[in-house]
Design a protein that fits this description.
Length: about 130
């Protein structure tokens, strides 16, 4: 003999299951967002270090390079050559940080996927 459950018991179970699903999805979304924030922070650090390195290097190398080149060419040409070299170095560092920043996907893909699965499951169970 099977004991039949009341409608209110079934509805309570459904609501409880939905609450559990929603809590799980929120936890998953938080974990994904936390990972994306960590990656964005890492990319930001690369960009800042690249910019700071570019600036520091520009100051010292331009200074030394201009003195050295001024022995063979006019001062303005020596300054231009040094500035171009340092600009290229800074561009490489910043491009590395930019590439890392572009790899970050702000959409919590796993959460979206599992939410779609849950919606399908709910549709199937209500038929």
């Amino acid at each position: 003999m099977t004991a039949e459950r009341s409608v209110s018991d079934v509805l309570q179970d459904i609501l409880s299951n939905l609450q559990d699903i929603i809590r799980s999805e929120v936890r998953l979304a938080k974990a994904e967002v936390r990972e994306d924030v960590r990656q964005a922070a890492t990319a930001g650090i690369w960009l800042l270090v690249g910019m700071a390195s570019g600036l520091g290097a520009a100051i010292f190398l331009l200074w030394a390079g201009v003195y050295g080149l001024a022995m063979f060419m006019p001062l303005w040409a020596a300054t231009l050559v040094a500035a171009l070299v340092m600009g290229a170095a800074a561009a490489v560092l910043m491009a590395t940080g930019w590439r890392k920043l572009k790899r970050i996907n702000p959409m919590p893909e796993r959460t979206v996927h599992t939410m779609k699965e849950h919606v399908e499951w709910i549709k199937q169970s209500t038929k």
